[in-house]
Amino acid sequence: MKTRKGIPFVLFLSVLVIGGCFLLQGAAGDTRVYVTNSGKKYHRENCSSLRRSKIEVSLLDAVKSGYGPCTSCKPPVLDEGEARTAVEQSPTAFYRVNIAALEGSAAADPGRMLGAEVVSHVDGDTVRVRIPNPPEGLGTVETIRLIGVDTPETVHPRREVEFFGKEASDFTKQKLLGKQVNLAFDWDTRDKYGRLLAYIYTADGACFNAALIREGYGHAYTRFTFQFMDEFRALEQEARREKRGLWGNEQ
Ligand SMILES: [Zn+2]
């Protein structure tokens, strides 16, 4: 008798569980947004950015593929639970810190980042890395422009070396050259020069982009939006207040 009664109950439970999964899947899987052939933003159907190309995708797929919300048409965004799912399903190779709600750069997960070795050094905010097994879209050797930080110029062809440029360049060289690092990404994968835009995390799990600003080797560069904009601005304020590095009295 027990088993006969048990079967319908198990069936009933299965229906509940399967139904629940569909409900959870719901919103982000069903919401349709639109992307273009070349852009890195997703849009509402009527956005003027879609004049040239218009590809319909689910919101979840758009976010998993690294697209960020357009700032002019303000399309829907994932809620917190859905964002977590997107993070879990997106490939480690393109660990994008903008998908989940992170409190700050220290909350990023190095375990999901792309490993690389810094093979040469260009200046304070630019290095070259070797990526042992580059995912699709990346080369074995890439030039990385650090996101959200601008260090004084040292290699500009038409300008003099700026104040503290050499110090910033030396700091980056000393901390990164020859080191194994982890790379994390934000909305945009490359800049207009084709350089990879990344956060570099050192072996101790610290975000090197943030360290440069905190130690006064560079400004927070906020012309393009990025996940840790508020944090980096606050770090610059701190460095200015404490007169660190380029904010020192000798200037
Ligand atoms: Zn738009």
Q: How is this structure best described in words?
A:
By secondary structure, this protein is α+β, with helices and mostly antiparallel strands. 31% of the residues lie in helices and 19% in strands. The chain is built from 6 helices and 11 strands. The protein has helices at 2-30, 59-64, 80-89, 165-176, 208-214, 229-241, and strands at 32-35, 41-42, 55-58, 68-69, 114-123, 126-130, 141-146, 149-150, 180-184, 196-201, 219-220. The strands form 4 sheets. The protein has a 5-stranded mixed beta barrel. A two-stranded antiparallel sheet has the order 1-3. A two-stranded parallel sheet has the order 2-4. The structure holds zinc ion. The site of zinc ion (ZN) has 6 residues, from loops.
